[in-house]
């Protein structure tokens, strides 16, 4: 039978969130109910609250989460009750043209739970990224549950569900960073520092952190940055070139997602290098460069959606690296909070005071 649990809900654009009682149905075919242990406060949740994603209010916020599978519906074989899982928003279909080509990380038909969670009065909720994990429990498609080693700390493991995976994947999967390479990362918040950590893990020898905030640059140093560039004080493109023998970096990751930062990434990469956009732009933004520059420079300018990850491949591997002490996921956790502190966590995030606030239940 259905359950009632506490959860964080956004009712209207820009309004403060509230903690309310919601109803979780029993899992149907292909679905799972997950008891949430921890969920990171991601900027995407703030986008939902501000109406920047769509206007399908009320939203059940939270998506960067880890927890225990409580129950599964008919036909579910990939996870079972009691499994420790990291939730993902890329439940691949296995049947679309990308999946059939052997590139499921580009799946064009990812899916969510069919049933709706509701407010106490029956109003249907829109779960953030199909997850809705600022809640004691949530209902998801079983394919959104990725089983990982249960020895991992939930507050750290859950961060792979979005921001950390986006950054790691931007550097490793999309950018193809490797041993001896150089990389510059523009924007050193959670995603940018994850890209730095990924580059360090992959063996890059020159790792350049670029930001306007000295605090964030110090964070970047802790994740493996070898050089720090304050772009409020110097020209970022020229600084990156100077640090790479005048050539530019092999990979430049834009973790900000603005026209000016993508332009920096484009011109700061080496000839035949790769510029990667992982920061999320707004619909009104445009990017313009002379076509002769695109033609003459070679290389690639790519977007990275969720770090081009495949959760079933990437999450368990990164959790193992974390448990081996090779991936510092704990460093991303700035503070642990309760459900009732999410609104203030949004403000701390906006002020740049935290890498990640993590709701722990």
TrEMBL record:
<dbReference type="GO" id="GO:0046294">
    <property type="term" value="P:formaldehyde catabolic process"/>
</dbReference>
<feature type="domain" description="Enoyl reductase (ER)">
    <location>
        <begin position="14"/>
        <end position="361"/>
    </location>
</feature>
<dbReference type="InterPro" id="IPR013149">
    <property type="entry name" value="ADH-like_C"/>
</dbReference>
<comment type="similarity">
    <text>Belongs to the zinc-containing alcohol dehydrogenase family.</text>
</comment>
<dbReference type="GO" id="GO:0050607">
    <property type="term" value="F:mycothiol-dependent formaldehyde dehydrogenase activity"/>
</dbReference>
<dbReference type="GO" id="GO:0008270">
    <property type="term" value="F:zinc ion binding"/>
</dbReference>
<dbReference type="GO" id="GO:0005829">
    <property type="term" value="C:cytosol"/>
</dbReference>
<dbReference type="Pfam" id="PF08240">
    <property type="entry name" value="ADH_N"/>
</dbReference>
<dbReference type="InterPro" id="IPR013154">
    <property type="entry name" value="ADH-like_N"/>
</dbReference>
<dbReference type="GO" id="GO:0051903">
    <property type="term" value="F:S-(hydroxymethyl)glutathione dehydrogenase [NAD(P)+] activity"/>
</dbReference>
<dbReference type="InterPro" id="IPR020843">
    <property type="entry name" value="ER"/>
</dbReference>
<dbReference type="InterPro" id="IPR017816">
    <property type="entry name" value="MycoS_dep_FDH"/>
</dbReference>
<keyword id="KW-0560">Oxidoreductase</keyword>
<protein>
    <submittedName>
        <fullName>Mycothiol-dependent formaldehyde dehydrogenase</fullName>
        <ecNumber>1.1.1.306</ecNumber>
    </submittedName>
</protein>
<dbReference type="InterPro" id="IPR036291">
    <property type="entry name" value="NAD(P)-bd_dom_sf"/>
</dbReference>
<dbReference type="InterPro" id="IPR011032">
    <property type="entry name" value="GroES-like_sf"/>
</dbReference>
<keyword id="KW-0862">Zinc</keyword>
<keyword id="KW-0520">NAD</keyword>
<keyword id="KW-0479">Metal-binding</keyword>
<dbReference type="InterPro" id="IPR002328">
    <property type="entry name" value="ADH_Zn_CS"/>
</dbReference>
<dbReference type="Pfam" id="PF00107">
    <property type="entry name" value="ADH_zinc_N"/>
</dbReference>
């Amino acid at each position: 039978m259905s359950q009632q649990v506490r959860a964080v809900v956004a009712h209207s654009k820009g309004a403060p969130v509230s903690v309310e009682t919601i109803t979780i149905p029993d899992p149907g075919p292909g679905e799972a109910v997950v008891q949430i242990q921890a969920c990171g406060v991601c900027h995407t949740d703030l986008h939902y609250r501000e109406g920047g994603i769509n206007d399908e209010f009320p939203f059940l916020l939270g998506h960067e989460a880890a927890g225990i599978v409580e129950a599964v519906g008919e036909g579910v074989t990939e996870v079972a009750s009691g499994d420790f899982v990291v939730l993902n928003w890329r439940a691949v279909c296995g049947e679309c043209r990308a999946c059939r080509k052997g590139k499921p990380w580009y799946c064009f038909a990812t899916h969510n739970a069919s049933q709706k969670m509701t407010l106490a009065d029956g109003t249907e909720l829109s779960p953030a990224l199909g997850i809705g994990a600022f809640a004691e429990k949530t209902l998801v498609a079983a394919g959104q549950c990725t089983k990982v080693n249960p020895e991992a700390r939930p507050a750290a493991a859950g961060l792979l569900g979005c921001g950390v995976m986006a950054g790691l994947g931007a550097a490793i999967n999309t950018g193809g960073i490797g041993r001896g390479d150089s990389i510059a990362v523009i924007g050193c918040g959670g995603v940018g520092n994850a890209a730095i950590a990924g580059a360090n893990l992959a063996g890059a020898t020159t790792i350049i952190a670029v930001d306007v905030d000295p605090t964030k640059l110090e964070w970047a140093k802790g994740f493996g940055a070898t050089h720090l560039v304050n772009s409020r004080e110097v020209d970022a493109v020229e600084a990156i070139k100077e640090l790479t023998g005048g050539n530019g970096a092999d990979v430049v990751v834009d973790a900000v997602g603005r026209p000016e930062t993508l332009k920096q990434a484009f011109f700061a990469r080496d000839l035949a290098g790769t510029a990667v956009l992982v920061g999320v732009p707004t619909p009104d933004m445009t990017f313009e460069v002379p076509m002769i520059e695109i033609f003459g420079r070679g290389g690639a300018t790519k977007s990275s959606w969720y770090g081009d990850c495949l959760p079933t491949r990437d999450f368990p591997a990164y959790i193992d690296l974390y448990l081996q002490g090779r991936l510092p996921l704990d460093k991303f956790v700035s503070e642990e909070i309760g459900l009732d502190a999410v609104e203030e966590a949004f403000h701390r995030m906006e002020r740049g005071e935290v890498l990640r606030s993590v709701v722990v239940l």
